[in-house]
Design a protein that fits this description.
This protein is α+β, with helices and mostly antiparallel strands. 27% of the residues lie in helices and 24% in strands. The chain is globular, with a radius of gyration of 13 Å. The model has no long low-confidence stretch (mean pLDDT 86).
Length: 83
């Protein structure tokens, strides 16, 4: 159910995209902005593009407290990394 890649991946390396997956619902205080800000820091620190790292949201994840999740990703500067 929960998992992770078994081998370390070099930042900016070639190969398959590293994907952070979340399947479920965004509710109560599970603010995705924290994840998006952390993603921005990793992207900036390692010069990663959408083909290198992405977040896949699956389920009831359309909005958080009335704001579309896509807008939250845009505000954090990672909209091209979030699907």
């Amino acid at each position: 159910m929960n998992g992770a890649d078994g081998e370390p991946r070099r930042a900016g390396g070639h190969g398959p995209r590293f994907t952070i997956g979340y399947a479920g619902s965004i509710y109560i205080d599970r603010d995705p902005t924290v994840l998006f800000r952390a993603l921005r820091r990793v992207v900036d620190a390692h010069g990663l593009g959408p083909d290198d790292i992405a977040v896949e949201l699956i389920g009831r994840v359309e909005q958080f407290r009335g704001t579309p999740v896509r807008e939250l990703a845009r505000r954090a500067g990672v909209s091209e990394h979030v699907h």
